[in-house]
Amino acid sequence: MKRIPAAAAHSRLKIGLSACFSHADPTRSLFTGKTLQYVEQSIAHWLMSTGAMVVMVPCPTGSTQRGDVTYEHYAHWLDGLVMHGGSDVWPGSYGEEPLHENWIGDRIRDAYDLALVAAFEAAGKPIFGVCRGLQLLNVAFGGTLYQDIGTQVPGAFVHRDPVAYDLNYHRIEIRQGTRLSRLYPGVERARVNSIHHQAIKRLAADFEAEAFSVSDGIVEAVRRKAAAGGYVAAVQWHPEFHRPGSDTIDDAPILQDFLDAVAAVRAAAADP
User: Fold this and answer.
1) CA 177, CA 226: separation in Å to the nearest integer?
2) 153 DSSP assignment
3) 191: Cβ–Cβ under 8 A, 6 or more apart, which residues?
4) Best CA proximity match to 170, nearest among 197, 135, 195
5) What is the pTM of this model?
6) pLDDT tens sequence across 69-126
7) Is the dihedral of CA 119, 269, 252, 217 positive or negative?
8) pLDDT in tens, 179-215
C-alpha cells in the first residue's frame, strides 16, 4: 500500500458535503426502521477530482453531553461547504403552506441544512449549493420558492422529466457583468441539465441572480453580493453530471471558483 505523507494530506482542502436523508422505514428490507444519511457519488467525485478531500457532515445527535460533536465543530474544522441536491424544500421553511400533498418536502432535512448553513456562515467559510442547495440557500437568507414550476409559472419549460432525468436540457442566459460571466468570458448563453420542479420565487435580498432560463426566466444561478458578506453561490443545474465532451456548460470554472475562495479563506486564517 502506498504511504501518503501526513503533510500532503493536511495541505488538501477539506470540503464538507451535506447529507441526503432516507428516513426510517419499517418496510425496508435492509436497515429496517433505521434512518440513513448518504451522499450521491457523482458530487463527491466531482469535488474530489481537484484533489479536495470530501467529508459528509452527519446530523449531530442533538445531545448537550460534554464531548458531543456539533455543526459548529464541523464548520471550524472544515474549509468549505457544499449543499447537496435532493428532496423538496418544505414550504413551511419559507412561511407557506403546502399547495399539494406531493410538495410537502422534507422539514427534517431542512432543519439540518439550515443549521449547517448557519454554522458555516458564522465561521466565515465559503458555501456552494447545487439544485436543492440553491433553493435551500435562498430560503436560508430570506427568499421564497415556487412549490411547483408547472403549476405556478404558466408556460414554463418542463424543468424535471423523470424519464430523461439528467438528459433533460435547456438553455440559460448568463447575466453579463456578474462573477459568473467572468468565469465564462464571451459566453452569453449556455446549455445545462434540468432536474427540478421547485425554483426561486422571491430572491433573497442579499443575493443577485447570475443566470436565467431562456425560455421562462427561472433563476438558474445566484451569488451573495460582495457587500453582504463572504462567499455564498449556487446553481440550479447539476454541474457534477457534466459529461466531458458534451455541449453542456463546462463545470470546471464553477468548481475552481469555489475552491479558490475556500483556499483564500484558509490562507487568510493561517496568516498570523
Assistant:
1) 14
2) S
3) 169, 170, 171, 172, 247, 248, 249
4) 195
5) 0.95
6) 899 999 999 999 999 999 999 999 999 999 999 999 999 999 999 999 999 999 999 9
7) positive
8) 999 999 999 999 999 999 999 999 999 999 999 999 8
